[in-house]
């Protein structure tokens, strides 16, 4: 009963965090401090996602599936999760990620929000199912923490992207609604599946979705969070050029470079926190 209550609380909390994260850019679309705060929080979430995928979900899936199939199915399914999101994110909509080209700039605005919605929704459903089929309280709490750490910033990034594409408020709310309900739907589906199937079938389903979730966590952490937050512009080059030309080591570092250092530290903290939790969970 406690496990079911945890999943219900998780679904409601994830729904609430997603709504808040998506409403912030609607209320303060030009508030740089809000964007900066969520950007730093997103970096922390990237570290948490990376740790949750590599240190918790993937090993747990391996342990569960070892007793069911005589094959390294967990790493394979994790790779499938990565490749599936890669296909959606970088192949089917390749032009949306073009950097530095006029053609990419022209196609990015109308296409990228759709890509982001699809990628985040697929990941959200798989993560929700992984949480819903969990049979251990501690593991359920860990997956819930990982999802909560990223849901708000993901909703924020999605709505900002849709805003940049020129969508009206009705479309923004429609996109936000679709995104925020995906994880609770996944949790519901996973919980129902866990109640229907028993024995090796239940273990196979639980291990498989944990492995898929691990792959999507790793993909989102590295390519959609860390890569985006740590992407270098020419600002840091300009800083060092100014320092050299002026012969002054005290030339202030641009805020973007300072944030990059903070983000790296936050990513590391998120990863370490998941590593420490592995001592008990």
Question: What does this molecule look like?
Answer:
The chain has helices spanning 2-27, 32-66, 73-91, 102-132, 137-164, 169-196, 199-230, 235-246, 255-277. The protein is mostly helical and 281 residues long. It has one domain (2-277). α2 (32-66) runs antiparallel to α7. The longest helix has 35 residues, at 32-66. The chain starts with a helix and ends with a helix.
What topology does this entry show?
Layout: H1 2-27, H2 32-66, H3 73-91, H4 102-132, H5 137-164, H6 169-196, H7 199-230, H8 235-246, H9 255-277
Features:
281 residues; mainly alpha; 9 helices; 83% helix; globular
Distance between the termini: 20 Å
- Low-confidence region ranges: 95-109, 233-246
Largest sheet report: none
State the helicity in percent bands. over 70%
Number of strands: 0
What is the element string, with H for helices and E for strands?
HHHHHHHHH
Number of helices: 9
Count of the domains: 1
Q: Estimate what percentage of residues fall within beta strands.
A: under 5%
- The chain-level mean pLDDT equals 81
- What overall form do the CA principal axes indicate? globular
Radius of gyration: 20 Å
Structural class: mainly alpha
Oligomer: single chain
């Amino acid at each position: 009963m406690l496990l079911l209550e945890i999943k219900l609380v998780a679904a409601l909390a994830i729904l609430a965090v997603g709504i808040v994260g998506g409403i912030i850019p609607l209320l303060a679309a030009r508030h740089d401090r809000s964007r900066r705060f969520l950007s730093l929080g997103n970096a922390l979430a990237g570290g948490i996602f990376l740790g949750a995928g590599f240190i918790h979900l993937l090993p747990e899936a391996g342990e569960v599936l070892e007793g069911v199939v005589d094959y390294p199915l967990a790493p394979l399914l994790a790779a499938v999760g990565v490749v599936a999101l890669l296909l959606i994110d970088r192949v089917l909509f390749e032009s949306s990620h073009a950097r530095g080209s006029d053609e990419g700039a022209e196609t990015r605005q109308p296409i990228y929000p759709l890509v982001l919605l699809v990628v985040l929704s697929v990941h959200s459903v798989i993560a929700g199912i992984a949480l819903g089929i969990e049979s251990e309280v501690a593991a359920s709490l860990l997956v819930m923490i990982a999802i909560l750490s990223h849901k708000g910033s993901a909703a924020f990034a999605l709505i900002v992207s849709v805003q940049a594409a020129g969508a009206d408020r009705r479309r923004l709310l429609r996109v936000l609604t679709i995104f925020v309900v995906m994880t609770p739907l996944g949790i519901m589906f996973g919980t129902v599946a866990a109640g229907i199937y028993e024995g090796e079938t239940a273990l196979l389903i639980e291990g498989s979705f944990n492995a898929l979730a691990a792959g999507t966590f790793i993909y989102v952490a590295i390519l959609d969070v860390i890569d985006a937050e740590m992407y270098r512009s020419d600002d840091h080059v300009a800083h060092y050029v100014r320092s050299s030309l002026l012969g002054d080591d005290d030339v202030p570092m641009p805020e973007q470079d300072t944030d990059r250092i903070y983000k790296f530290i936050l990513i590391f903290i998120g990863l370490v926190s998941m590593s420490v939790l592995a001592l008990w969970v």
